[in-house]
Amino acid sequence: MNKLDKIAFIMPRGAVYRYKTGAFGKLIRYAPLTLPALVSLIPKEMNIECEVYDEGIEVVDATKIDADLICISSITGASSRAYRYAEYFRGRGKPVVIGGVHATLCPDEAAQHADSIQVGLGIEIFPQMLRDFRAGKMQPLYKARSDLCYAKFPLPRRDIYASKKMRFITVNSVQATYGCRNKCAFCCTPYSSPGYCHRPIEDVVEEIRQIPSKNFVFVDPSPIEDGYAKELFKAMIPLKKHWASPMTIRIGEDRELLELAVKAGLKGVLVGFETVSQQTLNSIRKGFNSANRFYNAVQLLHDHDVAIMGCFVFGLDSDDKACFDRTLEFVHKANIDIPRFTVNTAYPGTPHYEEMKRQNRIIETDWSMYDCQHVILKPAQMSVDELQEGHFRAWKEAYRIGNAVKRLACSRSFLAYSITSNIAYRMYADNLPRFTRDVMCDYSDIPQLAISN
Ligand code: B12
Ligand code: SF4
Q1: Residues of the chain under the 50 pLDDT cut
Q2: Ligand 2 binding pocket, CB closer than 6 Å
């Protein structure tokens, strides 16, 4: 039997996203659902106290954390820090569990740093692991079943952020669907989840109804990839909420779906356009999108007062040095309300990563650099410096005051949010170049201890 009166959850963040020292301001920082969902899964009868430490909203002092079990959640870009925290706590004799998207994609690696790892959603395996831990028989690996039941989730414990909720723009994150039907070569969603799964519509509606605010965000990869979305949106209309969500650009190509979404309160979408070149879209297995329809789709969204956060990738293999200006031209012409740029990044577990490895083009192995803002691959048609500099220049150019004012004046969609986001992303764009490799891979704030056997 093990004592399990208290768990400490730690969510490390990459340097750009860290509280105070990062570049990702409060105006664009919403709460991930990860820790509220995990805490809600702790069986009540186990009577376990929880402490939650999220580096996105606080400076974490590991020496002050004391708990019977340390649970670390990390995405790829935060995994080097996750491992350092794990080493420190194991050095203090504290058992460590690591879960999240990176442990799901790289279980063998994560297992070297933890007493137990969790692969996939925690829905069944997290409570099981806690029971096993208390019984003194925790297993080294817990893997979610591929036929999980998505009904009757406990309500996420958003109250864990109560004392720090002002550090987020919202803590009201909701997820209705998991995985994605598409299989874009660079994206880890299809390779870290078992297909495209839905929660029952009545569960999602009831969860949204209970949110004590008019506004919330979906964190689904794209909830509109099949007929589920239309039924969900119909059921959401009476709730009279306002919301934003990631979605493919299909939302701007299916008028009936868009009208239902707007009636249900849609105010903003995050769309991964990735590129304005059809050849490049095809090369990344995103050829189901048509670049020549992007402009009209954006206009349709704007006509329905929906603001667009548009994401673009630079340095894909068919991108030459003209990709920066070509993309900016589209951003300006279409008045993309909140443009965001990334550089070609290969995440482990994806076909893209395997291909880049095969071609011996991966030039960076510290996961902290895998935040999509730093070049980690040899580009095909430009140098590493040209890609990095072109990327920073695109951010700067898009957020020049004149450009931001022009697009906001033209679009007028969800204006208050678009204005504050533009201010926050302008600061982000100005700050990005100071996140050099030395800053990104500096772990000196995490204490070091040798692992005791
Ligand atoms: C919120 C969010 C963010 C937030 C915070 C992320 C963070 N944790 O630091 C912000 C805005 C900062 C962000 C930034 C970025 N993000 Co992001 N983000 C998300 C998003 C939309 C929602 C996360 C969430 O709430 N999920 C819902 C919860 C319930 O699921 P979950 O996190 O997987 O948790 C469950 C299980 O994994 C497991 N679990 C998780 N942790 C643990 C821990 C333990 C101990 C246990 C037992 C179980 C467990 O149980 C949980 C409950 O079932 C996801 C997409 C998604 N839907 O997951 C992308 C996602 C995590 N982001 C991603 C990416 C690529 C980025 C960016 C590069 C974006 C960009 N283009 O610039 C940056 C990178 C930042 C960095 N430094 O690396 C990728 C991750 C890729 C990877 N391999 O790491 C995702 C998966 C989207 C995607 N498909 O591309 N992101
Ligand atoms: S990029 Fe978007 S559409 Fe493509 S697989 Fe990922 S979530 Fe699905």
Answers
A1: 453
A2: 180, 182-184, 187, 189-190, 221-222, 248, 272
